[in-house]
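Milestone 3.1: sequence recovery, worked example.
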């Protein structure tokens, strides 16, 4: 009996996804594409990426074992499971992805990184692939980058004007009042690990600095590719060749930079050098770290081993961001919370009449559910927004950072001084109808 796929080449099977090799020369790219189109592994690749593309996923996670492969796509910060693949299909699928990215398909142990593109209709993504051997097999992560950024500026991430202006001041923005002007120091940008938004807040926060009034130099490990911001000069540090960050910082002084930008702080010596640059040469440094809140970010950097009082003297502040899903404006549902609930959230009852939740479909008399919302495909949420916490260091906080090992004490002090936590910022999103209580709880626990 004939089947729908009889007589078709592998590339003609599966969903409508066009895969392209992009990082080699024309001949190498063409050879890789031809090889992949002849492999049955291209079918599961197209199936996984089609789901990722139509759902606007940001990442794909594939775990391969002897029993097969599980795959998930991350949509607005939530992981969605895809069908399990048998071992043979999984092996061929990963081989196709690696071939497109000009990686070694036979090496399932070493860490490898590359890139290819995937398009379906008008939807296109650059697929940054990382593969690494695990105890049970191999893990593959695809980071799907849009041709246009999801957010144009940090304002679109949901930051409040008050926080943004203080961030600019703490990172050296020109102030007419010279007593408020900051010329030197260290500022930390942080977000949770595992897709918590650090790359997003990092690039957009840097985009809000005055890079056209001062000279910015970014130092990254070779191949890191974390900072792509206009008017920031890039310098790669080849760690494999024995180069170090302190030596490259010393070399970069010939360019007389005003600001050092380091998305990665590898050791005590690098942090020590940045502290010396702040104290002795009047230079600013902007760095990043994964953390669960601003105080933990400070603690992680302090734990590198620089003298705590020296580090505290240099530290200007930290901006931390968590992301939560936004309620769909077309189908979100209002409800009236009780006064006690409003009080528990810390909201003024006179200012909050209703809160919102995602659409809860109710069947009609015949048991039929309404058609899902066209805008969000029935998910109840569209896109994400940021919840920003900013801690600026004064003498009290500097003293605490220098001598206090208990993070909760520092957190309490920061709140006493008027700094809002990310949870408090999220409650403001609740009051504005941007997100729901359930989503805020999920985002804060993730």
């Amino acid at each position: 009996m004939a089947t729908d796929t009889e007589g078709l080449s592998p590339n003609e099977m599966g969903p409508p996804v066009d895969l392209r090799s992009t990082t080699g020369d024309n001949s190498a790219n063409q050879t890789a594409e031809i090889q992949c189109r002849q492999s049955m592994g291209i079918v599961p690749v197209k199936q996984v990426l089609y789901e990722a593309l139509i759902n606007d996923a940001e990442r794909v996670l594939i775990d391969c074992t002897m029993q097969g492969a599980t795959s998930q796509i991350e949509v607005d910060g939530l992981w969605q499971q895809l069908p399990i693949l048998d071992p043979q299909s999984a092996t061929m699928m990963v081989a196709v992805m690696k071939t497109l990215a000009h990686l070694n398909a036979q090496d399932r142990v070493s860490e490898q990184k590359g890139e290819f593109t995937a398009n379906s209709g008008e939807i296109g993504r650059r697929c940054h692939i990382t593969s690494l051997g695990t105890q049970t097999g191999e893990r593959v992560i695809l980071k799907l980058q849009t041709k246009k950024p999801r957010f144009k500026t940090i304002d679109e991430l949901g930051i409040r004007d008050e926080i943004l202006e203080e961030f600019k001041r703490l990172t050296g923005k020109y102030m007419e009042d010279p007593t408020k002007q900051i010329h030197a120091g260290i500022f930390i940008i942080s977000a949770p690990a595992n897709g918590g938004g650090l790359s997003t807040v990092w690039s957009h926060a840097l985009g809000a600095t005055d890079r056209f009034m001062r000279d910015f130099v970014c130092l990254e490990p070779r191949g890191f590719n974390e900072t792509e911001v206009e008017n920031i000069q890039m310098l790669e540090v080849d760690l494999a060749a024995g180069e170090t960050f302190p030596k490259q910082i010393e070399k970069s002084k010939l360019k007389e930079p005003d600001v050092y930008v380091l998305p990665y702080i590898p050791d005590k010596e690098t942090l020590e050098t940045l502290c010396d640059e702040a104290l002795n040469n009047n230079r600013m440094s902007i760095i990043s770290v994964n953390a669960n809140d601003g105080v933990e970010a400070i603690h992680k950097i302090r734990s590198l081993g620089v003298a705590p009082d020296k580090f505290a003297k240099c530290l200007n502040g930290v901006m931390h961001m968590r992301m939560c899903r936004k309620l769909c404006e077309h189908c979100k549902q209002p409800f009236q919370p009780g006064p006690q609930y409003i009080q528990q959230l810390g909201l003024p009852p006179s200012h909050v009449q209703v809160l919102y939740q995602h659409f809860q479909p109710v069947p009609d008399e015949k048991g039929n559910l309404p058609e899902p919302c066209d805008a969000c495909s029935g998910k109840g949420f569209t896109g994400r927004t940021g919840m920003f916490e900013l801690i600026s260091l004064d003498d009290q906080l500097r003293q605490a950072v220098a001598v206090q090992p208990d993070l909760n004490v520092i957190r309490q002090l920061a709140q006493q001084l008027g700094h809002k936590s990310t949870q408090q910022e999220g409650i403001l999103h609740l009051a504005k109808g941007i997100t729901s209580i359930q989503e805020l709880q999920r985002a804060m626990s993730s």
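The mean pLDDT is 92. DSSP finds 14 helices and 16 strands in the chain.
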